[in-house]
Amino acid sequence: MVLATVFETAGSTYSKSGQRILIRANGDYQGLVSGGCLEGDLAERARAVLENGAASAVTYDMRDEADDLFGLGVGCNGMIRVFLQRLTRKTGYEPFATIARLLFSRRPSCVATVVYSDDEALPAGTTLVTESGGAELFSDSDAERLLPGCMAAIEAGSARLDEAAGIGVLYAPVQPLPNLLVLGAGLDAVPVVSIALELGWRVSVGDHRPSYIERNDMTEAERVALIDPKALDSEFELDSFDAVIVMSHHLRTDQEYLGKLAGVDLGYIGVLGPTARKERLLDALGEHGETLRNRLRGPVGIDIGADSPESIALSLLAEIHSELKRGSAD
Prior knowledge:
alpha/beta; 3 domains
């Protein structure tokens, strides 16, 4: 396969620096760097990378409105540069295998990729992956000098291209997949789980009612568990989640869940139901309720006029997505 990484953009573009897709030898690809108009050409260029093993960079400049790229009239009015690296079974598909592992980790991490170079000691394709506790090098070169740039990118929380002395290095923090816990496996939880999975999120589901677990198909979730609400903190590693939505629709059960969640640092916590119900729950929780009062979302979701389980799930997940993105930007 070939790993294609966006390393520089200008103007209006579909994706930004750090976006990655995988391209197979047969031309199939997973992910997008454009609206689908550039991927075919990237697949053709990937074949050359697979054949000769040499990493390469390609630039698509669509800022000239008079120039319809490949006759397609893309109209993005932007410039995008993409770096192509060969991945092989012999090398364990590195560095992507490590990047994929880090998508399931909450530890700060960054990928430094040399996208062009005049320095023989740091050739194009040199890749350094850093995370708390160490760094991994995926080429024979003097890549440890990239470590300070990785640390700076992690601190900034955004990808950047550093260019100096004939060397261009993309420093791209790895943004872990959002990890969502849904507490309640009723029929209205089904579209929540389905849409979250379609977004590529990790999803776990818990409920105290065996019939709900058995009746509603959520088998594609990472974990579906029959749980005792009083033992929620032993059933799940709560601080591993980015967001939790409480939706059992059973007042006492929701109260138990919220009591267990009160002391957990979460990017988003919400409870389904009207404001009066949320306030009733908070009052019943006493000190735990005060801890949650300024953090608990309810009613949940952004106002899109939601009036069905599917549209409510859409508004809820849009709110969670917005909140988590705001937190990562901070």
